[in-house]
TrEMBL record:
This is DAGKc domain-containing protein. SUPFAM superfamilies: NAD kinase/diacylglycerol kinase-like (SSF111331). Residues 1-129 form the DAGKc domain. Pfam families: DAGK_cat.
Length: 129
């Protein structure tokens, strides 16, 4: 299965500020997994919502959240509030400290393994309310 060109939304302060340091390795692992992408850093609370909404509205059909549970929540809410009529897929590379979401849905907590899984054809439908 071919994954469309993605928008990756990176929260550099996730994981007690460790994500910024890990990002060069994560971005290389994503490329090694065959993902073509553009990325943007979040700049504060709520910014991932804006970035995801804009990306989905601009036609990105695949968004990847790199961060913790808060980042995943914001990206999901941005997708849901977009004006796009297309189905948008959310991939997750967890770099947070809690990682409740990835644990509950079976996404690997190890970011190196998660990077390989973002191009997997496996999809999980989640009821958001």
């Amino acid at each position: 299965m071919s994954v469309p060109h993605a928008k990756v939304i990176v929260n550099p302060v996730a994981g007690a500020y460790s994500t910024r340091r890990k990002w060069p390795l994560i971005s290389q692992r994503l490329r090694d997994a065959g993902l073509s992408f553009d990325h943007e850093y979040t700049e504060g609370v709520g910014h991932a919502i804006e970035l995801a909404r804009a990306a989905a509205s601009d036609g990105y059909r695949y968004l990847v959240a790199v961060g913790g549970d808060g980042t995943v929540n914001e990206v999901a809410n941005g997708i849901l509030s977009s004006t796009s009529s297309m189905r948008t897929t959310l991939g997750v590379v967890s770099t947070g400290t809690g990682s409740d979401f990835v644990r509950s849905v079976g996404i690997p907590r190890d970011y190196a393994i998660a990077c390989s899984s973002v191009t997997s054809p496996r999809r999980l439908l989640i009821d958001v309310g």
